[in-house]
């Protein structure tokens, strides 16, 4: 049924870069057989899923939305893909994304944009717009995204779906093509909080192949979602981040957020306002740290090891082949980041830019720490606006970067964070997301509050 649905809506939505129908049907048949024999691999065995095209998979290409990796099929499975397969989850295909996960609209994909199923003229957010659009268009009931600065939560918000960035280190990054290694985190996407929780438990947990993977029990997120579904938040202290409102926020988004706060109060939560004074510097710090790490990580695309190779014709030397390949293989945004990052890391500028950004990062972590002395979770709008029109911000990087204003602090601090649907904006009828933020390793709190609220 999902393959039929994909065939019917893909010409309009373009959520997928690759669909593996044959393999998916076989995996589904195997899951059915196991279940009939009382040997279901997990509660999600046989459930279809859309996988962001940034995870390595041996049976499908992994392009990261880039010409650089067009047609590249990896020799190994990412831990996330491997765990999904072990759990009997059926991987339908790979979803569209901004090139190397850099963007907030999926327009930076080398293979054309994904369209928001709510309004095909609008973006589905990014970088994981393909995964969230696939959920919103009912092409898949579950999806996986990655969130470096908001790429799971921001698309979830603007497509009316659920997206979770787990605690940094909660889900293995092995086989997740690196953008900014100290920020990248894989996470579950679904149409309900409970669905996301069940998927979270399949992919999370220690992995010796990732040195930053946390060696501790996975938070009990499914139990928390079930508990939250009873709708009782008595004893839960919720902090409203004062700094996430005002200029730049759409009226309908703020109205929806205020209504969400009223709902949380009516569910028994104790709501207070808290201040996180350094959050206003998060965007600036992020756009030094993320490009710096990306400039280093993307050095591996040197025309020798992976994918594209241009000018290998006996006329050009090695250095020329490398530069021709990088010139043609990378899109404009990726080049912008590599240049910014290389500059910020260069001798004489390192302390002023990268070093300074790392200090700001510490201050943001401290803001969170002192807020979490007063409250159990923090809430804010997920995004300042609803989905914008395709093309509207394409030539204005600063406007594009602002889409992640509210999501970035949790990445810088490594905390857990979720976006849950919060109705539609009265102005344009488009979905709005409520962001819930919790301390590291307290992912279960997100699910309890999210399930109570949805
Ligand atoms: N929009 C942000 C960026 O372009 C976040 C991307 C992400 O989370 N992968 O860097």
Provide a concise account of the structure shown:
This protein is α/β, with parallel strands linked by helices and 454 residues long. The protein has helices at residues 2-13, 21-36, 79-86, 129-136, 153-159, 193-203, 221-228, 251-266, 282-297, 318-329, 332-345, 351-374, 397-401, 408-413, 443-453, and strands at 16-19, 48-52, 90-95, 142-146, 162-165, 186-190, 237-241, 270-274, 377-381, 416-424, 431-438.
Description:
This protein has an eleven-stranded mixed beta sheet, sandwiched between helices. 57% of the residues are buried. Helix content is 38%, strand content 13%. It is α/β, with parallel strands linked by helices. The longest helix has 24 residues, at 351-374. The protein has a single domain (2-281, 358-453), classed as Amidase signature (AS) enzymes (Alpha-Beta Complex). It contains 15 helices and eleven strands. The protein is globular. It binds glutamine. Glutamine is lined by residues 101-104, 127, 147-151, 179, 290, 404.
